[in-house]
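Quick one: structure for this chain?
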Amino acid sequence: MTAALGMLPQIAAADEIRHTSFSSFMVGTYAPSQDRCGSDDKSTITISETKFTMSDDSCVVRWIVETVGRNGAYFSTHAACTRKDQSEPRVMDVIFQPSGGRQLLVGSSFDNLKPYVRCRQR
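Got it. Here's what it folds into:
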């Protein structure tokens, strides 16, 4: 029994997959709604393979941990982010959770995930 209990943390950790870039299906621009997909709207989030921008922050991915939860996969992103008016990067942890084909939930914790939709390409 003790040997089996000692293996539990390793089994749980096996459910996490570490990445250094976003999956291609997540790359794109997202906004709270389609009408806010304009290029000057600070509410948009743009995700590329190894970077993302949100508000005034430009972030470089250090690592992403993919985990499957009861609501599907989510991606906990650890990034170095720089504000437009600052030169020193700061560490940010952001959760990205795909929700349906064109939606993404984004937030700093599960308590404040906000819905975004993928912007149509122009």
